[in-house]
Amino acid sequence: MSQYQPPFRADTVGSLLRSDELKQARRRFQAGESDYSALRAVEDAEIRRVVAKQEALGLKAVTDGEFRRAWWHFDFLEGLQGVEGYSSDQGIQFQGRQTQARSVRVTDKLGFDPEHPMLGHFRFLAETVDKATPKMTLPSPSVLHFRGGRRNIDTSVYPSLDTFFADLADTYRDVVKHFYAAGCRYLQLDDTVWAYLCSEKELAAARERGEDADRLQHIYAEVLNHALADRPDDLHVSLHVCRGNFRSTWISEGGYEPVAETLLGRVDVDAYFLEYDTERAGGFEPLRFLPEGHKQAVLGLITSKSGELEPADTVSARIAEASRYAPLSQLCLSPQCGFASTEEGNLLSETQQWDKLRHVVDIAKAVWQD
């Protein structure tokens, strides 16, 4: 079935390396040296270029590379009603690197603005695509809660977190409805949090913030399921899980076993994009919780953190190993993450990025032959 509808045997997570021209245009705009229309013109041209490139490689789902964003998550979240961005005391700590000092907090009742700019971003992508399926990538609802937790949610607005989670679920239900109305039929929710829930270090940090860490996976599953309830049959929703991706570094480690039964068995999405490019992700045994039927597991066996190509026979062997726990017909292949979760991008060249995506397409053709 994956040959004809999302996810596809060869798929992509979403973000792409920004060109020097795009980076310079953004710097000029931020410095007040050009207006937004000048930046928008460069963005439009660069998106058209990478859409055409993705289609030429044979990808059946394409994205805009997240070229209108600085962050994979904050740009969208700041556009929600009740959410504001701010300059935090420090950035998010990765292995040996730290992001810019930026975060978001909840200051008022949550809601979705029908004028959210990313609806326009999707419409432009859909108009630009020729034959492929336009894919929209958005941060998952749990991302708004996990990193800051209770301290980043105004207690005068939400004295009870139960009310916060109920409004968060309703807000994302509106997100789904509005993107569907805009023509989106392939929606990906990016969710690093499920991997953090597999990390003892991240769980300990959550407990220090005052969270009931043992309940979080069940709360997040309920929020997602409410947000996705009653969605149209022709809207395909995937959940992308990774362990952090900034300048080719990472945050968490640990296999999927602690959350697999809830994540794979109870969260009502059509597919899971699962990071599997290093030993940090553990083995394929958790795939046994993937229900038989239409659900797909997209194996992130191709790393986006370096330019070196994985041997094709090694990747094929790993897919065969995964098929011991879930049917081959329910498996697909992709990079483990995007190539530029923030505008800085990972440490590889654009040529290497395209070679990686071509590698995904070629290996998928050889393995599934459908």
Structural features, described:
It is a single chain. The chain is of the alpha/beta class and about 375 residues long. Helix content is about 40%, strand content about 15%. The strands form three sheets. A six-stranded parallel β-sheet has the order 5-6-7-8-9-10. It has a two-stranded parallel sheet with strand order 1-4. Helix 10 links the parallel strand 7 and strand 8. Helix 1 (about 20-30) runs antiparallel to helix 2 and helix 6 runs parallel beside helix 9 (about 215-230). The chain is globular and about 55 Å long.
Largest sheet data:
6 strands, parallel
- Mass-distribution shape: globular
**Low-confidence segments:** none
Residue-averaged pLDDT, rounded? Answer: 92
Find the structural class using helix and strand composition. Answer: alpha/beta
Share of residues in strands? 5-15%
Please give the alpha-carbon distance between the first and last residues. 9 Å
> Which strand order does the major sheet show?
5-6-7-8-9-10
Instruction: Specify the number of helices.
Output: 12
Cα gyration radius (Å): 19 Å
The SSE string, one letter per element, is: HHEHEEHEEHHEHHHEHEEHEH
Q: How many strand elements?
A: 10
Helix content: 25-40%
Protein name: Cobalamin-independent methionine synthase II family protein
InterPro entries: Met_Synth_C/arc, UROD/MetE-like_sf
Domain Cobalamin-independent methionine synthase MetE C-terminal/archaeal: 11-365
Pfam family, one: Meth_synt_2
Structure characteristics:
370 residues, alpha/beta, 12 helices, 10 strands, globular
